[in-house]
Amino acid sequence: MAIRENFTYTDMDLWLNEKRVTEIECLVPDLTGVARGKILPRGKFTQERGMRIPEAVLGMTVTGNYPTEDGGYDRAISATDRDMILKADPTTITMVPWATDPTAQVIHDCYFSDGRLVDFAPRSVLRRVLKLYEDKGWKPVVAPELEFYLTAKNTDPDLPLKPPIGRSGRAETSRQVYSIDAVNEFDPLFEDIYDYCETMNLDVDTLIHEIGAGQMEINFLHGDPLGLADKVFFFKRTLREAALKHDMYATFMAKPMAGEPGSAMHVHQSVVDVKTGKNIFSSDDGSAAPIFKHYIGGLQRYMPSAMAIVAPYVNSYRRIVRHTAAPINIQWGMDNRTVGFRVPESGVQDRRVENRIIGADANPYLALAVTLACGYLGMTEQLEPTPITVASAYDLKVELPQGLPEALQLLRGEDKLRSVLGDRFIDVYAAIKDLEHQEFMTVISPWEREHLLLHV
């Protein structure tokens, strides 16, 4: 569900007046998932519906640079640095609970001057995939599970991260998976997080301590993919703000600490028939429908080519390592957490598959778009999955790209994903990731200085 279900512009204005909002943060999620935009006074927001920001805001690397010498990028993004027109989505209006003065925040969609959605904007890419489902009479349902680390403040990027100090005055030195007491070490922080999320209507469900020291997981209630992507986008921002208030950092890096497990965004997904309201993954007799296997077949066939989207940074591939609580291949199994695609035990209406490959560092709009795109292609092409894996998949061969250059090569070469996600999106996205990798390669790591400086 959306944050404000069925809200119109009129509803939004009444709500802003009721809350006595004095300023509004007008947000656009960029390709990294960072919130871009403008902050407007309340009166200006009413007058300036359809505000503008440069199109290139959606074409930046995580370091703020532009791949201006890439042919595909140059064809997609205007060299004249033209504007996009931003229009607020009233269903996303919510308060900024950490602000001193009454402040609201609202997500905007990006449009060209002729009224078309900017096709390489993350929300537009997800809308494009959802339209394919709508045309088939299907409605996808998702439930993200988002892992993250709490760390002590670290102002020197050359120093390793450390777990934060809890209320006991000590930092974790061992793994405390599912420990209630370990979560309670940070009670003041999590009380703020739950209060913030309630104020913002984010519908978070359970909180658990994950495997790593200082690693937590928050689960979201299942619902509409666009609404859930908005909530994950808001949650990341909210968690970082709450952590800073308590003198610590929160990070969604895929692998922030050496020797600790990485962080994922596991996504449970099913598909409902719009007319009947039934889960199409289940047959009338309660067994798994053939189309369920086709969906899994699509994930297996196309997810390796989509890896650059769900593992978007050089750091992302440090997580995809054997025996580190992350999948290394595209196998599937029943209630098997070692595979890439897990089928949980469930009832007939709840039959679903969990994509465990996606990293916590992925843009939520793009991650949901691409996993649904893979499943869609599997259903429409009637792809068959491999035999089910009943043992540990960690002992099987690696089937996923092991680095960003390999992943980008696969992404650029997969015409089916290009047709579903859009040519211009693939061109812009791949160009940005190429440049990010080039920037990374200019940095010399501590490992290189330690082992190569005097030994080679």
Automatic annotation (TrEMBL):
Belongs to the glutamine synthetase family. PROSITE patterns: GLNA_ATP (PS00181), GS_CATALYTIC (PS51987). Its cofactor is Mg(2+). It comes from the Bacteria. Keywords: Ligase, Magnesium. Pfam families: Gln-synt_C (PF00120). The lineage of its organism: Bacteria, Pseudomonadati, Pseudomonadota, Betaproteobacteria, Burkholderiales. Residues 122-456 form the GS catalytic domain. This is Glutamine synthetase.
